[in-house]
Design brief:
Elements (H helix, E strand, L loop, with lengths): L5 H11 L7 E2 L4 H11 L1 E4 L5 H20 L12 E3 L13 H4 L8 H8 L5 E10 L34 E6 L12 E2 L18 H4 L11 E5 L4 E2 L9 E9 L13 H5 L3 H6 L20
Parallel strand pairs: 1-2
Antiparallel strand pairs: 2-7, 3-4, 4-9, 5-7, 5-9, 6-8
């Protein structure tokens, strides 16, 4: 797909992009949410955040966006041109030191869903981050998986990490409506278990480029099995698109976690929040240093 102008691209996306038959569930539809998540490798749930929580989270994202952009006047991005990772822009690899992200750790609308997906409430918090793209991010990000082959090894050579139940889940929160033009995530259904090579941008068929998770309302969460193929799409709107997240390990799976929340803030979490975030807090004798950095 080659467009002669951004206006042409915008018109094309409005007319063509979006997952056909995208189901968006209510938080009480737990059985259906789990079924679709396990089938497709992702699912969207509305009304996870209240209107006030959306405003709070959006304000927190805007503050961090301003800090990051101030360090990148050329808009080179750290996930591609005009694309940024919230986590990679912090010295801790996370934004968990900020109260807006701490709010996401134990939401009464979301915790029962995560527990049902993992079959247990004893999952572990890895980090809190997400990404954003600014207007002018007119290119596609290549399809990718957030979990590599090196994360699991079967010496018999019979199993790969793609044969396992979901080991690592990402919950992305929509701070604005996801539309065809503001850089919605594209997801390729069912690829969490695929052993096929992920196509490059040049190889990717057009239907995959149009497989975007939209429209979806602000306040929703997109739950992703991080093994599923996904990628960023053009933001040809006039607004920044931010999707903060929390990243969660299944009870039976984890890798080393970098401390990213102070002991004082950790103590303010709910009992469940403290249990799942216990690897994210440093020893009480250690000082947590979290500041915004930028490296393209």
């Amino acid at each position: 797909m080659r467009m002669s102008s951004v206006a042409d691209l915008r018109t094309y996306l409005v007319a063509n992009t979006g997952l056909a038959g995208l189901e968006i569930f209510d938080p009480v539809d737990v059985a259906d949410i789990v079924r679709v998540f396990r089938r497709d490798g992702f699912v969207v749930v509305r009304d996870i955040l209240t209107d006030q929580q959306v405003e709070t989270l959006r304000a927190g994202c805007d503050a961090v966006v301003d800090e990051i952009l101030a360090l990148d006047p050329k808009r080179e991005g750290n996930r591609g041109v005009r694309r940024y990772s919230f986590g990679s822009s912090s010295t801790t690899g996370s934004q968990l030191h900020r109260p807006e992200w701490q709010m996401l750790v134990d939401l009464p609308t979301l915790t029962p869903i995560i527990s049902a997906i993992f079959g247990s409430a004893d999952y572990m918090l890895r980090a809190a981050g997400g990404d954003f793209c600014v207007p002018g991010a007119n290119d596609y990000q290549a399809l990718h998986s957030d979990m590599g082959h090196g994360t699991f090894h079967d010496p018999r050579g019979q199993l790969t990490y793609r044969d396992l139940p979901c080991p690592f889940l990402c919950a992305n929160f929509l701070t604005t409506d996801a539309t065809p033009t503001n850089g919605p995530t594209r997801q390729i259904p069912g690829t969490q278990h695929s052993r096929e090579p992920i196509p490059t941008l040049e190889q990717e068929p057009e239907w995959m480029r149009l497989s975007t998770v939209c429209p979806a309302p602000a306040g929703s969460v997109q739950l992703r099995d991080v093994r599923a193929w996904h990628g960023g799409t053009p933001n040809v709107s006039d607004d920044v698109r931010s999707i903060p997240n929390i990243e969660l390990y299944a009870p039976w799976f984890h890798f080393p976690v970098t401390p990213s929340i102070s002991p004082a803030d950790y103590r303010e979490l709910s009992e469940h929040g403290q249990r799942i975030a216990r690897l994210c807090v440093p020893d009480s004798s250690e000082e947590l240093i979290a500041k915004t950095v930028f490296s393209p």
